[in-house]
TrEMBL record:
<dbReference type="Pfam" id="PF01381">
    <property type="entry name" value="HTH_3"/>
</dbReference>
<dbReference type="GO" id="GO:0003677">
    <property type="term" value="F:DNA binding"/>
</dbReference>
<dbReference type="InterPro" id="IPR001387">
    <property type="entry name" value="Cro/C1-type_HTH"/>
</dbReference>
<keyword id="KW-0238">DNA-binding</keyword>
<feature type="domain" description="HTH cro/C1-type">
    <location>
        <begin position="7"/>
        <end position="61"/>
    </location>
</feature>
<protein>
    <submittedName>
        <fullName>Helix-turn-helix transcriptional regulator</fullName>
    </submittedName>
</protein>
<dbReference type="InterPro" id="IPR010982">
    <property type="entry name" value="Lambda_DNA-bd_dom_sf"/>
</dbReference>
Length: 64
């Protein structure tokens, strides 16, 4: 069984702030906050950008 990483954990493990993440993938800070704090799911295109940024596979991540 593999360990699932949350978006917040990925960001923290990469020493990245919410504003830095937002800038890197082209969304607002409030969008990142809604993903991390409210359980809002990223759109498919945003998921692809997140996976590429963090060099992880979809199966390794939960987005809330």
């Amino acid at each position: 069984m593999s360990v699932k990483l949350t978006l917040k954990a990925l960001r923290a493990n990469n020493n990245m702030t919410q504003p830095q993440l937002a800038e890197k993938i082209g969304v607002s800070v409030s969008t990142v906050q809604s993903w991390e704090n409210k359980g809002v799911q990223p759109r498919a295109d945003q998921i692809v950008r997140l996976l590429n940024l963090f060099h992880v596979n979809f199966e390794d991540v939960i987005f809330f």
